[in-house]
Amino acid sequence: MSKILVVDDEENIRLLYEIELKEEGYDVMTASTAEEALNLLETYKPDLIILDIRLPGMNGIEFLRKVKEKKRNLPVLMCTAYDDYKQDFAVWASEAYIVKSSDLAELKNKIKEFLK
Amino acid sequence: MITQLIDIDKTQVKILHHIIKIANAKPDIKTRLFQIADLIKEEFDLDICSIYLPDESGNFLILRATNGLPTEFVNKIRVQLGKGITGEAAQQKKTKSLSNKSASFAESLLKLFPKDFSEVQHLFKDLITSISIPILDEEVCLGVIELLSKKEFIFDPKLIEFLESTAHQVSGIIRNAKIVYEADQSLSELKKINEIGKALNSTSSLETLLNLIVKTSLELIPSRGCFLRLYNRETNKLEIKAFSGFDDYVKTHPALTIGQSVAGIVAKEGIPLIVHDIKTETRVTPSSRDLPFSSVLSVPLIVKGSPIGTISLLDKIKDERFEGESLFVLRDQNLLSTLASQAAIAVERASYDENMQKFSKENELKLRELSILHETSNAMRSTQNLNRRLFMILTAVTIGDGLGFNRAFLLMVNERTNVLQGMMGVGPSSGDEAGRIWSEISKKKKSLTETLLEKKPMEELGVSKINEIAKSLRIQIFTETDILSKTILEKKPFKITNAWEDTRVNKDLLSKLNTDHFASVPLLAGDKVLGVLLVDNIFNKKPITESDLNFLLMFANQAGLAIESAKLYSYLEETNEELKKIQERLVESEKLAALGEMAAGVAHEIRNPLVSIGGFARRLQQKFNNTQAEGKYLDIIIKEVKRLEMILQDVLGFSRESHLLLSKNDINDTIKDILIFFDAEFKEKNIKVNSLLSKDIPQFLFDFQQIKQVLINLITNSIEAICKDGTLEIKSYLKTENNSIAVEITDTGGGIPLNVLSNIFNPFFTTKNTGTGLGLALTRKIIEKHGGNIEIRNEIGKGATFEINLPIKLEDNAHEQKE
Predict the structure, then answer these.
(1) Taking the domains of chain B in order of start, what are their residue ranges?
(2) Among B598, B602, B604, B648, the residue to mutate for chain A (most A Cβ within 10 A)
(3) What end-to-end distance do the CA atoms of chain B give, in Å?
(4) B17, B117, B271, B356: which is deepest, by most CB within 10 A?
(5) CATH class of B662-817
(6) Which of B596, B638, B781 shows the shortest C-beta gap to A84?
(7) Which residues, 6+ apart, have CB-to-CB distance to B378 below 8 Å?
(8) Where is the Histidine kinase domain (chain B) (predicted)?
């Protein structure tokens, strides 16, 4: 069973993603901060990360950098309410950039793409 | 009667009676002297009776009346004082007589005469008696009565006494006549001088006055010629300003040096001079002894103590009324001096008047020039438009009220190409048109300012032939060879009169202008040469004078400043315009940025709850189907959330502008810019740079800043690969087959290790301790956004080549920019 780590500071979003993705048949772990997620990186060993950009403390882009430095092949899907980060060169290092939507179809399709 | 003394008293009474009659008679002295000679010859039964009077020099006796000698000898026969009986009588003031029967007597008489008279020797044949009685007035000898006879003469003292008393009577006649003549002459001279005084003071023109002085001088002392000379300070010469007679001499000798010849001495010394025979006179040194006149009377014209000129009379003509000499005498000198003193004042006054007039004319001209400059300058101040100012300049140059040239062309220097480019031309295109326009202008009577401020001709200029010709003029500025180049390089005006034969003139220019003459002046703004003003008078053929040229130059200087200021103004305007646009864009983008920031903030705040609302609603919907009311309600919630999300998307979409700022740029210029940027580093690290940039590459659309970033990234990589000592080659060329350009950057940094090569474009991948590791990833991203690609050619041990390909995009297609 593939493991997905969801990093988002919004509790309701974490809950929604967890339920939806579990229904899709994934093992899901959530983190509300990048620091928390960083710990889970080694303990939980996720196969894919869903990452918000605006986070309290360390932001998503810094976290992305740290992830990519450690595990270059670990797919990270940027999932944010801000589509203007798409222009930020730093997010190019991520595998995908998804604008948050109540329709999770796009997110699910991307996950499938990277967890074949 | 000479042999007998009979009737002597009777004869004497008769003679005395006649003489008294003659003395009181009206006829002039000449006639009366003849009458006396007739009387004496008849009464004393002589062969010849002649009366001699001394000439003005007093050295000779001249035959003035005779009976017995041919009348044509009168005035011609001269007897030297002291020579012969007659000469002795005059010199010793005593009656002399001689009676000699020898044939040699007649001969000795004849010897007294010049050779020309040898043909009349028969008249003297057989003459044996000669008596000469001096005509004495107190102690002065007024003449001699000469009696010659072929008969013997008895020297009766009574008879001699009678003859002497007769001579005394004659002396009375001569004296009276002289007094009358002199009084007459003085009167007429006084009258003349008076008239002259009046005339001189009523004549205003110097020329008329000078001619009047010459005319009057000749009336006063009849002579064959008269020269009036005035001293010219500039040439330091005495120039003949008015004259009468000796035209040929005047033509060949219009001026004398001070001190030279008679007038030269007179002017130098300020005193009058009489020369009787200039051919032999040693006091003067004329330019030539071979002169058409021999005697000269010259007096100075003196003003305030210094001579301003001379009046010279040449070859006096003898006065018919009196037995005067044809020589100038003191009396003449005094007379002419009196005239000269009056004339000098009048000449001074007239030349002063004339100078005043000249000055006032010059002033008028200067004033006119100033007013043209002023009006043009004022008119030009009404506009900052360069073309309009150029047009005003050319109008002022060509209009009659202005400088009045027929045509004017303005050429400006293009400093970049070093070419003199025709900008504008003003003037009629043909002689007919010229005539029509000029007559129209003279009818309208507009002031220069009014004409300059007219708007209409500016519109007509667009279709004018002359303007077209002007615009077709292009002259490469070379040194020396071409006259227009010379005008610019030497900053000097030139006047070309025989253009077709002048090697300095560009013949192509001439045939375009279709003229044979012109003048060119530089347009200067301070030290800077802006261009050339070229003018001609092709239609009225009026010669361009030196003063025309000087004024044109003055005008061109002013025009140059006006052009310069208009140029600066238009540059300022352009810059201002550009600044304004940039500012507008800045404001616009600031607005957009603010809007975007706000929208993003709002989106973040709204989107997250919307995701939760929508997400959970979708979950609930799965529990209800559409037939149930709850299912329908959920449907509404999901759709409304979707709609809100779409609205957010639109708002955010607006702020997400394409960040490719495309503009037409020169890729080579971009490369050069960057090489300069790295110059110091290249030197420091001893990196040699070979740049091979193709000149065929057109300007095309790309984001200057971003491509610059790409090149900086690639060159930085190369420099880091080389480290120290090496070569960097940068090449640009056109790839016509796919309408793109390529830029290759090759280093000698030993190439990229194979394990690195596969990751080279990955983000955050770096072999360095510094840097983000985004360099090459970013580079590829930028190039791909431009629709291009990047390739690496790697040679381990040698170096690497990065090749960028960019499509040549010439039109900004908005859709392509968006992602």
Answers:
(1) 8-183, 203-354, 369-574, 580-655, 662-817
(2) B604
(3) 164
(4) B117
(5) alpha beta
(6) B596
(7) B449
(8) 601-810
